[in-house]
Amino acid sequence: MKKIYFSLLIIFASLSFLNAQSYTQGNLTVNIMPNFSHDSSNCTSMCMFMYNIQKPVSFVNDTVFIKDAGSGFVFYTFVNTSGSSPWSDFAMIPQLVSIVPDINLIQPGNIANYFAPPVKAISGVDTIYNIFNMNGTTITDACSYNNVSGNLYVDQNSDCVFNAGDIGLQNVYVASGAVLSSPTQTSAGFSTYSNTGGNYNMLVQQSWLTSYNVYIPSQYQFIFPSTTCSPVVYNFTTLPQTNVDFSLQCGSVVDVQTWVGSPGSARPAIPFILNPVVSNTGCDSASGVLKLVLDNRVVYNAGLSSNPATSQNGDTLYWNYTNLTNLSAGAYWNSFFAGVYLTPNVTVNIGDTLCFSSIVNIPANDLNTTNNMYSFCIPVVNSYDPNIKEVSPAGTTAQGLIPASTPSLTYTIHFQNTGTAVAFNIIVVDTLSANVDAASLQIIESSHAMTPGWNAPGVVQFSFANIFLADSTSNEPASHGFVTFKVNLNPSLTPGTQITNRGDIYFDLNPAILTNTALNTIETPSGIKETEVKQITLLPNPASNEITISSTSLIEKIEIYSVTGELLRSEKYSPSANIKLDVRNLSNGIYFIRAGNSVMKKFVVAR
Q1: Fewer CB near the terminus (10 Å): N or C of the chain?
Q2: Contact 431/502 with Cβ under 8 angstroms?
Q3: Within the chain, which residue ranges are assigned CATH 2.60.40.1510?
Q4: Cis peptide before 379 (omega within 30 of 0)
């Protein structure tokens, strides 16, 4: 398989971008041409990436796939329906579009940086990896924005001034709703959070602005009732604005709540982390116990957990938390966190769910008791492979008959992820037949980047690390993979010799899945044929030491031939209908016996 890698260095200080990029590998060239546009009424710019593929040599139904570089999802397929050679085609790929709001432009200079997913282009044996869809331009008619700033604090002495003894509130959400006169946009929202000192600075759109307000959401009002020093909502018509402060009081209630940060899914035998949390959004402090009830099919490892449980009783973990208040460390939100290291046991299978509950005690002055318990379940997903093994030439009949002159066999191992999650790593282990020359193995092609290696003499391993193979439900075309290799046959294989090959495919930590067995058999040459007669029998057949020849007529002469017609032995006997023939000096293989002048029968020596 041919591979080529590109790296693109972007120095944001200079913001120097190419307007077009070109990648070539073998018979395939991919040109990327960015197409920029700006919408002043919506205050956004867009870059669409036009793809041009070129192949100097092509044919009817020649295909170029544009795939996501990570998941393998097929974004676009170019097909040469006309059979033109050379062949060139253009397409604007819908998934490769980047939109940048004007508020996110880099200053100074109003620079828009556009990023779309990196892709790879595949056409036969030619693969171009890591095609970067990145570009940038200066927006000359960008919308303008300006600042609103102020402070959020608990006014302990009620003097309407942020001074000694007052507490600045960190991480409080501040929002603004603007009324606009744009032809396509009548309103817009803006927001920010206060910093460690309670200060905030928020950009609000100035272009098309008619009026705007500034406020903190109503759900905070039970914690921080407004004082007479500042309104609940500010209203303005001009920008910029400074000293838009929120002087607040501290309520006497608490709201203790719990939740758990968790992954979207779990995999059998692969560890994951749960993050149980208890927090208090009230000014008064709260202390108590946090409990996490585990699914009985996971194993808890305290040594690998951050902030491990204070104690454990069966499937329940316990933590003590103390003095949680939103004024701790000058923060609006103060929480107790734990990191729990869990591993699903061997009984967990794809399609199962792992369920957990987080529970905190309810203080007497808790404003909302519905959020003191949090229960959830995590689906168990995994990759899975149906697999198939192919050989070329396949040969004829069910035995895969091939001539003894066949120089080599080409094997392809196909795999597909029919599970419910992306496959991160895939390993294919192939045990070669003793009838092939392992040293002659040559890798022809693979669907993804992989690393070959020898596990043992005659046992080759193909490692697809970080393949991120999509599952067939999410993206069927991208759920397939393969590896193709060629190996020479050993010289002088006798007719009847069988060459078998089978692979083991490992998807992540799943058990190995065996492929079918590809079978080839060295056929008998056409130079010598068995005579179809029923009056002679050979037993046993195959034979190891001795074979008995029985006939309905008397036998006086026996000749043994190789499958190529070479006379190996000729013996005369006293006339008899039953003759015992010693075959211990014959090697394993197929032979022919001539009884008399015309009767020819095949027998096999096998030990």
Answers
A1: C
A2: yes
A3: 256-379
A4: no
pLDDT at position 135, please?
A: 85
Residue whose C-alpha is closest to residue 339's, from 273, 432, 419: 273
Pick the CATH number of 21-138 from 3.30.1890, 2.60.40, 2.30.29, 2.60.120: 2.60.40
CA-based nearest residue to 524, from 489, 560, 565, 488: 565
Query: Which residue ranges does the chain devote to CATH 2.60.40.740?
Result: 388-522
Q: State the CATH architecture for 388-522.
A: Sandwich (2.60)
Contacts of 488 (CB under 8 A, 6+ apart): 407, 408, 436, 437, 440
Which residue ranges does the chain devote to CATH 2.60.40.10? 145-248, 536-605
Residue 326 banded pLDDT, cuts 50, 70, 90: low
Band (pLDDT 50/70/90 cuts) for residue 117 is confident
H or E element that contains 148 = strand 145-154
Closest of 248, 257, 275, 224 to residue 324, by C-alpha? 257
Cβ within 8 Å of residue 23, ≥6 positions away: 4, 6, 29, 30, 31, 32, 121, 128, 131
* Domain over 536-605 is classified CATH 2.60.40.10: yes
Instruction: Note the pLDDT tens digit of each residue in 282-293.
Output: 777 889 999 999
Question: Each residue of 457-492: pLDDT tens digit?
Answer: 889 999 999 899 988 888 877 888 888 899 999 988
CATH number of 145-248: 2.60.40.10
pLDDT for the residue numbered 134: 85
pLDDT tens-place string over residues 528-553: 544 444 467 888 888 888 898 888 77
- The answer to whether 150 and 244 have CB atoms below 8 angstroms apart is yes
Overall fold of domain 256-379: Immunoglobulin-like (2.60.40)
Query: Which two structure tokens, joined as six digits, stand for 592?
Result: 């022919």
- Tally Cβ neighbours within 10 Å of residue 452: 15
Which helix (H) or strand (E) element contains residue 526? none
What sign for the dihedral angle of Cα 390, 392, 397, 401? negative
Average pLDDT over residues 23-28: 94
Helix (H) or strand (E) holding 451: strand 451-456
| Cα 400 from Cα 516, distance rounded (Å) | 14
Give the pLDDT band of residue 334 (cuts 50, 70, 90): low
- Among 50-64, 240-254, 373-387, 419-433, the minimum mean pLDDT is found in 373-387
Rounded-to-integer distance, Cα 568 and Cα 288, Å? 95
Cis before 34 (ω within 30):
no
Write the pLDDT tens digit of every residue in 552-580.
778 888 888 776 667 788 888 888 888 88
* Secondary structure, 3-state, 467-501: CCECCCCCCCHHHEEEEEEEEEECCCCCCCCEEEE
**3 and 16 Cβ atoms separated by less than 8 Å:** no
Helices and strands (H and E) in the chain: how many: 0, 42
Mean pLDDT score of the chain: 85
